[in-house]
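Model the whole thing, not chain by chain.
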Amino acid sequence: MSPNATEEDVAAVVARVEGVGGEAFVSKGVVRTIIGLVGDLESFHHLNLRTLRGVADVHRISDPYKLVSRQHHPDRSTVWVGPAGRQVPIGPDSFTFLAGPCAVETPEQTLAAAQMAKGAGATILRGGAYKPRTSPYAFQGLGVRGLEILADVGRATGLPVVTEVVDARDVAVVAEHADMLQVGTRNMANFGLLQAVGEAGKPVLLKRGMTATIEEWLMAAEYIAQRGNLDVVLCERGIRTFEPATRNTLDISAVPVVQATSHLPVIVDPSHAAGRKDLVVPLSRAAIAVGADGIIVDVHPEPETALCDGPQALLGADLRELAQAVRRLPSAVGRVDAGELSRTA
Amino acid sequence: MSPNATEEDVAAVVARVEGVGGEAFVSKGVVRTIIGLVGDLESFHHLNLRTLRGVADVHRISDPYKLVSRQHHPDRSTVWVGPAGRQVPIGPDSFTFLAGPCAVETPEQTLAAAQMAKGAGATILRGGAYKPRTSPYAFQGLGVRGLEILADVGRATGLPVVTEVVDARDVAVVAEHADMLQVGTRNMANFGLLQAVGEAGKPVLLKRGMTATIEEWLMAAEYIAQRGNLDVVLCERGIRTFEPATRNTLDISAVPVVQATSHLPVIVDPSHAAGRKDLVVPLSRAAIAVGADGIIVDVHPEPETALCDGPQALLGADLRELAQAVRRLPSAVGRVDAGELSRTA
Amino acid sequence: MSPNATEEDVAAVVARVEGVGGEAFVSKGVVRTIIGLVGDLESFHHLNLRTLRGVADVHRISDPYKLVSRQHHPDRSTVWVGPAGRQVPIGPDSFTFLAGPCAVETPEQTLAAAQMAKGAGATILRGGAYKPRTSPYAFQGLGVRGLEILADVGRATGLPVVTEVVDARDVAVVAEHADMLQVGTRNMANFGLLQAVGEAGKPVLLKRGMTATIEEWLMAAEYIAQRGNLDVVLCERGIRTFEPATRNTLDISAVPVVQATSHLPVIVDPSHAAGRKDLVVPLSRAAIAVGADGIIVDVHPEPETALCDGPQALLGADLRELAQAVRRLPSAVGRVDAGELSRTA
Amino acid sequence: MSPNATEEDVAAVVARVEGVGGEAFVSKGVVRTIIGLVGDLESFHHLNLRTLRGVADVHRISDPYKLVSRQHHPDRSTVWVGPAGRQVPIGPDSFTFLAGPCAVETPEQTLAAAQMAKGAGATILRGGAYKPRTSPYAFQGLGVRGLEILADVGRATGLPVVTEVVDARDVAVVAEHADMLQVGTRNMANFGLLQAVGEAGKPVLLKRGMTATIEEWLMAAEYIAQRGNLDVVLCERGIRTFEPATRNTLDISAVPVVQATSHLPVIVDPSHAAGRKDLVVPLSRAAIAVGADGIIVDVHPEPETALCDGPQALLGADLRELAQAVRRLPSAVGRVDAGELSRTA
C-alpha cells in the first residue's frame, strides 16, 4: 500500500480478496503496510487490485503455471518421439541429437542432409515444409509436398521426423506426416495454434519466443498441456538483445532455470541462436555441458545453395567436430546417447 | 571480404551476383576489399554470400519493403474507416481519437464505455471480442457474441468499430461485424493471419510487435499490402526493454521514423505501452505533439471490475483531462480533428 | 518461502529479521507461506535471506532512495543555475531550453553556437570540454582550454554554462569555470565521480545511464544528494534497446515516472537519444508535451565540420522550427519560459 | 546515397573522402548509388558524411580497434599473472580457475575463502577491497586495509591476487598490493580509469559492461592497450536483457566471438551473471566447454553473513562439484590446468 493509504483502503483490499475466497494477511509497518495474499491464483485474475485507492503495487509471488511445473510433478519427464517400434527419448537420462536441413527443398537434398545427420549421430530428423519468413518475398516452404518428402526420407533412414506448423489450419495435415510438431519462435504466443497442437496427439517441440521470458514460455507450454498434451519439449534458441555480433543471444542459463522449475525436457538450438556456422560447435558443446537434454542443428549438403539459413548450416569438418562432441561430452555430464535408449521393436 | 580473401574469392562473389542478373562493384583497399551489390533485392535472397570463402560480412543497404515505402509513394496516405456515409479518416491532415473498453464484457458496459469515449471526443470505437492472453486461465473474450455487442453499440452511437482478430479462421466473421480489423502485438509475425486480413476487404490496424524492429513491423505491413490491401494503419504500443517501471517502453521516436520511411498512417497506444493509468494522459499529449496521426486509449465505466487491463483504463477526471488535450493540442501541431473531416452522408 | 519450507525455516527467517530490529509478518497459505518484512531498509542490506534454507525468493517493495524521493518531500524542487544576478530556474513552473555545441572546438565556433542557441530562446549554454569517446582515437575535447572558452562565451552572451566532467580529479577545475556540472551517461554509475560532484557546491545535471533503470538513476542521484547536494537535475537521453533505427530509444515515459517518484526536476536530451537531426524537433515537442522541465539540444554553426556528433546538431530551418515549438508549446501545458522567471540582479 | 541524390552529391562525398587521403569507389545502380570507402579509419573520424546532402546512411565495415585485434596479431595471447617465481598463465593452452570472496571482510574470512578456493583447484585469488554499489547505503569495501589483507592472504596461500580498482586515483595503491587489476562492469567505459590502469604496469582483468556490445568492450581494451599495456584479460559476466530469472544473461557466445576477433584471453564469471548459487556449476561447465580460457567464481566460508553477494557464493557440495568439473572437463576440450603450466621459481 502507499504510505498514505488509510485503514479503509486496507480494509477494502482485504474485503475484495476475501470476496473471492482468498486470504489476506496484513503486515503493518511504521511507514508502509504490506498485504500478503494467499489462495487460488485463478480466482485472483479479475481482482484489479491496482485500481483500488491506496494500492501502490502488486507483486505475484507464486508461479502462474501448474501442469508444466515441477511443484506437483517433481520428477523430470521423458518425451518419446516416433512411431511404435522406433521411439527415441528426449529427457533427463539421455542426450538427443536432432539434425536436418532448415528447409525441405528436394527429395535428393533432404535425403542427403538426413544421411549426413544420421552419420553424425542424429536420431531425429528435422526439416521445414512451412517456413515463416520476415519477408513476403522470401521462400515460404514447399507445404504438403515438403511434408511428404520429409516423411519419405524419415522412413528411408529410420529417423522419426519433426517439422514446424505455422497455422492452426495445417495442424491436421502436419500431424499426419510428422512424428513431432514444432511451434516456432514467432508463434510461441499464437494461442490458437498452441491449443490446436495440444489436441493433435503428437509430441510438440516448443521453441522459445525470441523475446519471451522463461515464464511466458512455460505459460505457452501450459496452453498445450491444458488441452491434454504433456508431451512437450522446450527449445531455447536465443533471445533478442542489443548485441549485434550474433543473430540472437543464446540464453544458456535458461536450461538449468527451466529444469529447476518445470518437469519438461529442454533442448538447445545453437544454429538459429548464433546465425553463424563457426559458433555452432562451441555452443553445442556448451549446451551439452550445461545439461541440456538435446540439441537441434542445421545441416545441409550444399549450404551455398540452401533456400533458407545457408550461413548457419554445418557440413564437412565442422560436422565431424560436432559429431565427436556429441559422442564424447554427454557421458562427461552423466548422459547416455538417446540412440542407445530407443525403444526399437 | 576478409583481409586474407584471394582474387579468386572476390571473383567467385562477383560471378554469383552476376549470375542472378545483379551488378557487383569491387572497391579494393590496401587491407580489405569491399564489393557493392546493385540489382533486384528479391533475386539476391538465395545468394548465401556469407557461405562463400573470403566473405567477412554482408550488409543490406536498401529497404526490403516496397509497397508500404515512401520511395515510390512519397505522399503520406489517409485510411478511411467506417461504412459509407460515416467514414472517419486516419492520416496526415487529421488527428483521430480511438477509444473504448479493452474487452467487450456486456452490452451495458460496452455502451457505457462507448458513450464515455464519444463524450471525450473519440470518433472510432475499439473493443475486444477475442483476447490473446498469456495465461490459458485468464478471460479469453466473448467471441462472436462480443462482435455482435460491439456492432450494435457502434450503430447505436454512430461510431465505426475496430476489434482484434487473433486467428486466421476468424477473419471472415470479424470482417462481417467490424469496420476495421486489428492485428495485435503478439500476432504481428503471424504471417498466415496477416495474409488473411490482407484479403478481407477492410482496413487493418497493425500493432507493432512488442519486440519487433520498425523494419520488421513494416515488413508485416508489406505482407498485408501484398495481398492487395493498402489500407493499413500502424500502431506503436511500446517495446520490451530492461526498464520495469512501465509495462513496455513507448518508442515515441517510432512515429517520425515511420513517417519518414512509409506512407502509412501511424497512431499510438499509450494505455498498453504504460500499463498504468497515470501515464496515459502525459503520453497521449506526447503522441499528439510528436506528430502521431491518432491515439487509441482504454476507457471503462468501472475499471475495478474490468475483465481485462483494468489498471490502465481511464474514467472521470483523467478522461476529462485527456479530452481537453485532444481538443487543444492537435491544432498546435497543425492538425484538424478527424470528426470534422469525416465523410458523412 | 518454497512450498516445502518447514516451520523451522520460517522461524529462522523471522529470527534473522528480528535480530536487526525489523518485524516479520507471516502469511501462511495452503501451499505457500509469505513473510512480509517491515523496518529500516538499510538494516536489511546484509541479511542475505536468499541464502537461508526454504527461501524461494525475496522482493523489495519500498523504494531504496530517500533524499531524492517525494515521500518525505512531496513538492517538486526547482534548481537555480548561474551566478548571483542571473540565475535561471529548472523546475515545475517553468520550461528551460539548454543548447550549445556538443564539443567546444574554437572560441569562434563556440560563440557562434551560443548566439544561435540564445537566438532560438535558450537560457543556458551547454558545451563539452572533456568528451568521453568510445574510441581512443576520437577527439577527446580541449580540456581546461575548452573550459576557459566556454566560460568566456557564457559571460559574453550572459548565459550560465553547463559542461561535462568525466573524472573525479577534474571536478575542482570544472566547478571553477562552469555554473553546472554534467555527469554523462557513461559515468552515471561512477560512484567516485558522483561523490565528488556532490561536494563541489554547484548544481549537477545527471544524465541517465543508457542502460540504467529509473531506480538505478535515482540511486545515482542519491549518491550526490548524500554528499549534501540536492541541486540535481535529471536528464533522460535514451536507453539501449534492440531497435537500430535510432541511436538509443528515448524513454519519454521516464519523465512522468520520475516526476511521480522524485522531487528533482527532469529534462530531455532529444539529440543524443535519436542521433539524427530530423528527429530532434518532433522529440522536443513530445518532451514539452509530456511535461518535461526542459530540453537540452545540440546546435552547431557548421555541423559538417563538427568534431563530435555533427549529424545530430541543428541549424537553419530546423532550429527555427524548434525555437517556435519552445516559444508556443510550453504554455499549452501550463509552463512559463524560464527566461521570464530568471533572477536577474 | 538516397535514391534522389544527384551527381553533385556523389562528387561532394568523393571529394571529402579524398581530401583526407582516402579512396572512394562509386557503385552506381538503377535506383541507388553506393560509395565504398577505403583508407585509414582514423582519418575518417571527422568526415561527418551523414551531414552531407544525399547521404542516406553510413556503415562501417572494418573493425575500429587495432592493437587488440587478431588481424595483425593472429596468434592468441597468454597473459601471465603473479610475481616472478610463481606466475600463472591465462591463455589458449590452459584453463585457469580464479576464485575468492566477493568482498574482503576480515583476515579470517579472506584466508578461509582462499583456502576453500585453493582446495577446489583455484590458482588465482580474487577478492574486493573497493566495491562499487548501486546504493550509497551498502557496504563499500575496506579500501587500503582490504588490499593489505588480500596481499597477506595471497602470500600465505601462494596465490597471485586480483582485485578491483574503481577510481583512477586509487590505481597506484592497488597496483602496489595486487598482481592483477580488475576493471568492473560499471567502469568499462570510464576512460580515465582505463588509461590509468593501462599505465600501471600490471595485467588487467577487464569485465564487460553489462550493457556493452562486444565491439565496445574491445574498444575499452584498446584504451588500455594504447597506453602500452597488452596484458589484458577479458571477462564475460552477463548482459542486461528483458529476462528476469537471472540477474543478467550470460552471453556464452561472446567467448568464441571474442576469440575469433581478438588475440586477448577471455574468461567467464558465472557468479555475477546468474546471481544464483544453483546456476554457478552448470554455467561453469558451459564456460569450460565453450572454450573459455578460465572462470572466476565467488566462494565464501559463510555466505549467509557475507557483506556482498552472499546468495551467489559457493561452498560445500556445490564447490566440490565445481572442483570436479574444473578437474575433468578442460581436458575434454584440449586444455591443461593452469597450475601445471605455472612458472614457478
